[in-house]
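User: what does the whole thing look like in 3D?
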Amino acid sequence: MSLGQFLDMGGYGGFVWPAYAVTLLVLIANVYMARSAHRRALEEALRRAATEESKS
Amino acid sequence: MWTWFHKLASPPHFYRLAGRLAPWFGWAAFILIVAGLYGGLVLAPPDYQQGDAFRIIYVHAPSAWMSLFIYVTMAVAAAIGLIWRIKLAHAVAASAAPIGASFTLAALATGALWGQPMWGTWWVWDARLTSELILLFLYLGYMALRASIDEVQRADRASAVLAIVGVINVPIIHYSVVWWNTLHQASTVTKMAAPSISLAMLVPLLVMMVGFNLYFFAVLLLRARGEVLRRERNAGWIREVVRA
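Assistant: Here's the predicted 3D structure for the full assembly of 300 residues, as structure tokens:
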């Protein structure tokens, strides 16, 4: 099977590939959002810890 | 048993444990999903009726399955938080919601992309599609309700009630293809007694489903860590964690 045939998906390439793209996008976006939320929370905690220490 | 449970539910212990576990789930999920993609796109033969369009099942069915699995996880966590007043359970429920909403969106989008070539329409107000759309609104409603209440404990309690009431939609979605026999095809996987799918088609689907589940656990742990940090930002243990 050639690459062109594979991409064509028996004529359904226009439906199969967007479906896979949407799903992969969701998978990647979730990891990205979870990581950035964790990083924000960690930075906030670091900032608070620094203010606490400067007070004491 | 109870001491073990309380230790697990203590935020610092959970934070460390989740940090250690998440990469394992993440990498296992990655390997399974890559293997499942190869199996589904390359190894599985085309369907005798649907041709290659049927390959959408390998992203559609796992997404749809996760949209239900995550909702139940969220509702159970919310119920535990409500009944036993465990803050960590509420943090887990709150973390699950956006992940579940995104899988519901993926299920609806891939379903539309499958419906157009097979049924000749992107959307139809059939029981399965409509109940899945209601699931999306439940997730969005849960998140909007949380966002609208400033005090964390009140947001936890109010959103938990919504999550628990919404569980009624889960069996409706699951049995919708049986109760109302409309356009959406019946389940392929659960008919184990009389398999309606060949092994070369079925195995990649199961691999993808397990992969998606492990993926969910990895992202849930990661999100819950951030959520716990955010809620406990004034607690003493955080300073120990962030210094390390």
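In plain terms: The interface with chain B takes residues 6, 9-13, 15-16, 18-20, 22-23, 26-27, 29-31, 33-35, 37-42, 44-46, 48-49, 52 of chain A (CB under 8 Å). The CA atoms of residues 41 and 47 of chain A lie 10 Å apart.
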